[in-house]
Amino acid sequence: MPAENITADQPATNQLEVYEVGTLPEPALQFVGDQLVTVKGRNHLRLYDRELRPVANLRHKGRLHHRLVADPGGRSLVTISQEGEAAWQAMLWQWSAESSSCVPLPSARSVLQVTYSSDGSRIATADDSGLIRVWNEAGGYLYELATDATPVALNFQPGMADRLLVLTSGASGRQQLQLWQGNKPAAIYPLPPNVGYSDVQWSADCSSVLAYGLRAFAWLQADGRLLLTGTTTDPDTGYLHLAPLDSGWLLVCDRDGRLLVCSVERSLLLADFGAELRAGSYPDNCLLDVAADGTSSRLVATSTDRPPYLFDRRQQCGVYLLHFAAAGVHRTGLVAVDVAVSRHGDLLTTTSSRSAERQLNYTKLWAVTTSGDERT
């Protein structure tokens, strides 16, 4: 359905203000609460506070996979690591000002997926045999549940640490979305066949569920009724960001850079990152990625030739991170290839590379406010 443009009818009442906190000579991974996690080498993670003061050094003797999952409260994180040729294992990290600890979450097979409950009291790990184990926040084993397919994604229901949504893929490629209550199956959500989904999300009010991938999504009501689907086979199109919102709305950012909110009946255009990022002297500019805060209120779009663009969908305003423009994107060859946004949207990072070598050079931390806010 054609999208209605609401940006002209709802002008911004505030303006975004972004200022640079500092620079680190290493790539950032993500935020853990208000703390930033960076990677140094193959087995070393560093944590910094919001002023870029060192908080903790996390070292493991094995090789760390550069994918980690953080406790929403910022108290711990789980990495997947490997020693020698052994199976990939989940490791629970906790830290204080004086020390850090690492607790294994044992599995006989390689761990594929990890997730936290919304209150941080439960951790679920899934291995390549289809076995899912649930642990408490200290790494104590609680129970397990067995699936007959490969787990692709896990997600606890917000506010319900005993209800786990599991997306699996069978040998035939058929995917299934199932809700578990403790170690017992509670519901199966119907998914369109032969579509490659890679993640699942709940809406914050638990009224809907989203299964999605780069080129397809299925949005379902919590009772299993299919609300909306999208799919494309064109390699140049797809979805950079999707999120189920409260009150029956779905946020969609497609590869063309259009940011929309959709319901079953209508589609509203909030912003066009593609138009912004292709403006001026950069007609061949290509959108790379979109990252968002925990409620998808603030989003950052990165591209090949233009500075990163920050947009606040609630305030209906956006701003470029002008450090890149001031430095001269073409003259220096710098491209912001990775971006992370804190859960509350008040911090973000850009990790840059030189476009010719694609070699990661440094990370910048930025603080975000709206006009009238006090900097903290």
Keywords summarizing the entry:
376 residues, 33 strands, 3 helices, globular, five-stranded mixed beta sheet, single chain, four-stranded antiparallel beta sheet, 4% helix, mainly beta
Q: What percentage of residues falls in helices of 4 or more residues?
A: under 10%
**Gyration radius, in Å:** 21 Å
How many helix segments?
A: 3
Order of the strands making up the biggest sheet: 1-26-25-24-23
- Estimated share of beta-strand residues: over 45%
Strand elements, count: 33
The mean pLDDT is: 84
* Mass-distribution shape: globular
**How would a crystallographer describe the biggest sheet?**
5 strands, mixed
Regions with pLDDT < 50 over 5+ consecutive residues? 5-13, 325-333
How far apart are the first and last residues' alpha carbons, in Å?
43 Å
Strand-pairing-aware structural class: mainly beta
Explain this structure to me?
By secondary structure, the chain is mainly β. Helix content is 4%, strand content 55%. The chain has three helices and 33 strands. A five-stranded mixed β-sheet has the order 1-26-25-24-23. It has a four-stranded antiparallel β-sheet with strand order 2-33-32-31. A hairpin with a 4-residue loop joins strand 29 and strand 30. The chain is globular, with a radius of gyration of 21 Å.
Give me the secondary-structure topology.
Layout: E1 4-5, E2 16-24, E3 28-32, E4 35-39, E5 44-48, E6 54-59, E7 63-70, E8 76-82, E9 89-95, E10 100-105, E11 111-116, E12 122-127, E13 131-136, E14 141-146, E15 150-157, E16 160-169, E17 175-181, E18 184-189, E19 199-202, E20 208-212, E21 216-221, E22 226-231, E23 239-244, E24 250-254, E25 258-262, E26 267-272, H1 273-277, E27 287-292, E28 298-303, E29 309-312, E30 317-320, H2 322-327, H3 329-332, E31 334-341, E32 347-354, E33 359-370
Parallel strand pairs: 1-26
Antiparallel strand pairs: 2-33, 3-4, 4-5, 5-6, 7-8, 8-9, 9-10, 11-12, 12-13, 13-14, 15-16, 16-17, 17-18, 19-20, 20-21, 21-22, 23-24, 24-25, 25-26, 27-28, 28-29, 29-30, 31-32, 32-33
